[in-house]
Amino acid sequence: MDPQTFSTLTSIAVVFGQIATVVLALLLLRDYRNRSRDSFTSWIHRHGLTLAFLVSAGAVIASFVFSDVIGWPPCTLCWYQRAFMIPLAFVLGIAAWKKDRGIIPYALVLAGVGGLIALNHVWLQSGGSSLIPCPAPGPGVVSCDQRFVYEFGYLTIPVMSLTGFAFVGALLAHAQVRKS
Predict the structure, then answer these.
(1) Is 172:107 a contact under the CB 8 Å cutoff?
(2) Residues 112-127 pLDDT 10s
(3) What domains lie within the chain, and their CATH numbers?
(4) How far from the centroid of its chain's Cα atoms is residue 97's Cα?
(5) Is the dihedral of CA 70, 76, 80, 81 positive or negative?
(6) What are phi and psi of 172, to 5 degrees?
(7) What's the 3-state SS for the chain?
(8) What is the predicted pLDDT for the residue at 124?
C-alpha cells in the first residue's frame, strides 16, 4: 500500500475515532447527570477495556507502519508519545484478558500524559513554541514541526496521536464508572 492511501485510510479512521470520543464524552456526562445507564453505555462499560486495548494497539501498529514500512522517521516528540502508547497497549491487553479493572486509573494516567505530549506537539506544528525541547534537525534527526501527513485540512500524525489518547481515555472512563 502506498503512503498516501495508508495516511488517507488512517485519517478516515481517526475522524471516526474523534466522533466516537465526543459521543462517549457526551454519554458519560448524560449518564453522570441521570445517575443511570442505558444498554449501549452498559455495553461500553463491560467492554471498555477490550475496546481501549484495540484502539491503543491500532495506534501502535499505525505508528510503526508510518515509520518502519513507509519510512517516515519519528521525531523526538513522536518517540515520547510512543513511550506512553506502547505500554498502554500492553497493559490494556493484559487487563482486558484478565478482566482487571484495577489498572484503569494507571492507564488513564498514561493516556493523559501521552495526550498532553501530543497536544504540545499539535501546538508546535500549529506555529506555537514547544514546551518540550525538540532537537534541531540534522543527520538522523527529524524536526518536530515537520508534517508528513496533512489530511482534511487539519489531520497530522500528532493530531492522530492525540485522538488515540483521547479515545482510549473516554473508553476507560466509561469502563471505570460504577453503576449507580
Answers:
(1) yes
(2) 999 999 999 998 888 8
(3) 3-176 (1.20.1550)
(4) 20
(5) negative
(6) -65, -35
(7) CCHHHHHHHHHHHHHHHHHHHHHHHHHHHHHHHHCCCCHHHHHHHHHHHHHHHHHHHHHHHHHHHHHHHCCCCCCHHHHHHHHHHHHHHHHHHHHHHHCCHHHHHHHHHHHHHHHHHHHHHHHHHCCCCCCCCCCCCECCECCCCCCCCCECCCECHHHHHHHHHHHHHHHHHHHHCCCC
(8) 86
